[in-house]
Amino acid sequence: MTAAADAARAAELLAAVPSDQRVALVDPRFVGHVHALRLGLTDPRFPAAAVPGALTAQPGARTALLRALRGAASAVGAGGPVAPPDGTPADGDRTVPGRLAVALDAEGTAVQRPELGSLTATVPAGPEDRAAAEAAVAALDDEAVRLRSAVKAHDGFFTTFFISPYSRYIARWCARRGLTPNQVTTASLITALIAAGSAATGTRGGYVAAGILLLLSFVLDCTDGQLARYSLQYSTMGAWLDATFDRAKEYAYYAGLALGAARGGDDVWVLALGAMVLQACRHVVDFSFNEANHDAVSNTSPTAALSDRLDSVGWTVWARRMIVLPIGERWAMIAVLTALTTPRIVFYALLAGCALAACYTTAGRLLRSLTRKARRTERAALALADLADSGPLAQGVGAVLRRPGGGFTAPLLALAAGLLMVGAALLAPLDGFLVVGAAVLYAVLAGLAVSRPLADTLDWLVPPAFRAAEYCTVLVLAARSDVPHAVPAAFGLVSAVAYHHYDTVYRIRGGTGAPPRWLVRTVGGHEGRTLVVAVLAALLVPGSGFTTALTALAAAVALVVLVESIRFWVSSSAPAVHDEGELA
After folding, report:
1. What does the pLDDT read at residue 85?
2. Do 50 and 26 contact (CB within 8 A), yes or no?
3. Helix (H, G, I), strand (E, B), or coil: what is residue 543?
4. CATH of the domain at 309
5. Start and end of every DUF5941 domain (predicted)?
6. Can you give the pLDDT at residue 297?
7. What's the rounded Cα separation, in Å, for the pair 182 and 420?
8. What are 438-482's pLDDT values in tens digits?
9. Per-residue pLDDT tens for 180-207?
């Protein structure tokens, strides 16, 4: 830390700092909590940030800051103000850092101003103000505030009351020993994989160990996010790991349960894949609805107003959070049932709970959509098109044909296409080409559904309909084939495709758009993969080649999407996605 006598000297010192380093300007009269400064000056997610009396800039905003500082020095030297007269911040911060923050905002460099809550950050105007500020600092333990703020503001009942009361202290312990959130995330994954391996033994001791380890993995899963918030260690790599490892842990555990059951003579692979499909479809309903309404104009709904009124009654908040079976409740249920019962009972309970949660959340979203008066934006329509994951076949159809007008035509076409495809997979003979014909018609209807922008009331149902159609088709064809190990191979294929779809979601949430079109074309889009699986079933089901083909397809899809995903998330352009609202 170096003191500068005036703005001109501060500009000289800033220019001398290597261009790849972060810089901060703090008024020497500043009085406040250390954590207030930490929030304002160390969060890596923003190019520039400020609290009263302090301003920071990352390398990308350094040039703008230096330009503003030199302009300030010139203005002061000429007898003028540091910032234009109309540029005083709303919080009244008339210090040099405060005025520079206004100048940066005016120039187009957004300055983040974190919510400080009860924390103090001020530049006193005189001795009385300084004494009052120092008293406020002494009266509040900012470490307690820091610990509380490490926990998500909105979380599930189990996480809030059974995990967070002590996991926040584990997070602090990790921070004081230099551990990073990514290391804790990796430890959570390893613990879950060991749990899956324990479940795969098929013994009662293995099941008990698996349940305990799964809960420990979840504790670590909560700790990594709390550590990131406690120490403000946000990163693009951390965003990617946190977004994908939860799914990897859950699916690996399902596979471990299925392997353990098989050792005891009980084949539950269909139930395991069904649970994975249902959970993935639940998520895409949430993702699709949220993206459709992310920035809706004139967004009003009586249903939303009723929801807000219910939230004013304490017990309804927790009841509604529990009924959606968020990850905390879900993993606790899985862990306890694993230790005390059998894998079949675990999957029965999981399917029943997820089905109830899916019905509740989807019904609520439908009511909100039908009662909401909103005009969706072009960005929302583009996000839904990206989530649809349409490949060359559907896009080709959409370029030639246009769906009829009307607010419900897109979701009706998507639902009809899905019902046709899954119905054919369920009922048509597998030794003919009726399923293949249904897959071709599915591609045509899917292309019609996305041939116009998805900007109408219920168009957010289109991506979930396609996900359900593709995943269920793979599940049904593998289950009906009676080919040894076909369902485990299908489990691998759906896992690879689901990873691609989750990757798409988090790229969109980060504001960087969907994966590149070449990737979608390479993996065929949802309709292309469905057609390929249908052809493989028609040609290979009588023999054992179907399992080999599904395994090869799963490996190919996984290789392509993982390589591109890793390349993107470790690149400098990847967003730091940290979703505080998702419970699943």
Report:
1. 45
2. no
3. coil
4. 1.20.120.1760
5. 378-583
6. 54
7. 44
8. 999 999 999 999 999 999 989 999 999 999 999 999 999 999 999
9. 999 999 999 999 999 999 999 999 999 9
Is the separation of the CB atoms in 257 and 272 below 8 Å?
yes
What pTM, to 2 d.p., does this model score?
0.90
Separation between Cα atoms, residue 155 and residue 147, nearest integer Å: 16
**510 and 546: one domain?**
yes
Three-class SS state of 185: helix
Question: Among 373, 397, 420, where does a domain finish?
Answer: 373
Q: Yes or no: say if 509 and 461 are a contact pair by the CB < 8 Å rule.
A: no
Q: How many domains does the chain have?
A: 3
Q: Is residue 274 part of a domain?
A: no
Q: For strand 48-51 and strand 54-57, is the pairing parallel, antiparallel, or unpaired?
A: antiparallel
Whether residue 125 is predicted with pLDDT greater than 50 in this model: the reply is yes
The pLDDT value given to residue 356: 95
List of residues 6+ apart from 46 with CB closer than 8 A: 58, 110, 111, 112
Same domain, 362 and 397: no
User: pLDDT tier at 313 (50, 70, 90 boundaries)?
Assistant: low
Which residue range forms the structural domain that includes residue 74?
A: 7-140
Over the stretch 59-103, which tens digit does the pLDDT of each residue have? 999 999 999 888 877 665 444 444 444 544 545 678 889 989 999
Instruction: Give yes or no: residues 189 and 322 share one domain.
Output: yes
**Does any domain span residue 288?**
no
Question: Distances in Å between the alpha carbon of 229 and those of 22, 144, 193, 475, 502?
Answer: 20, 13, 26, 40, 23
Position 40 in a domain? yes
Type of residue at 8: A
153: CB partners within 8 A, 6+ apart: 580
Amino acid at 284: V
Under DSSP, is residue 546 helix (H, G, I), strand (E, B) or coil? helix
Burial of 193 (0-12, 13-18, 19+ CB in 10 A): middle
Give the CATH number for residue 562: 1.20.120
Same domain, residue pair 511 and 543: yes
φ/ψ (deg, to 5) at 478: -65, -40
Could you say which of 80, 109, 140 is where a domain stops? Answer: 140
- Helix orientation angle between 343-371 and 269-292, rounded to the nearest 10 degrees: 20
Position 301, amino acid: S
Contacts of 398 (CB under 8 A, 6+ apart): 390, 447, 448, 450, 451
| Spatial distance between the Cα atoms of 65 and 56, rounded to a whole number of angstroms | 9
Most confident by average pLDDT, 302-316, 335-349, 535-549: 335-349
Segment 146-169, tens digit of pLDDT: 999 999 878 889 999 999 999 999
- 505 and 555 inside one domain: yes
Which whole number is the average pLDDT over 30-41?
95
What pLDDT score was predicted for residue 81?
Answer: 45
Task: Give 563: exposed, middle or buried? Use CB within 10 Å, 0-12, 13-18, 19+.
Answer: exposed
Q: Are residues 170 and 241 both part of a single domain?
A: yes
Do 358 and 476 lie in one domain? The reply is no
Based on the domain organization, do 366 and 385 belong to the same domain? Answer: no
In a domain, 159, yes or no: yes
**Structure-model confidence comparison of residues 581 and 567, the more confident one:** 567
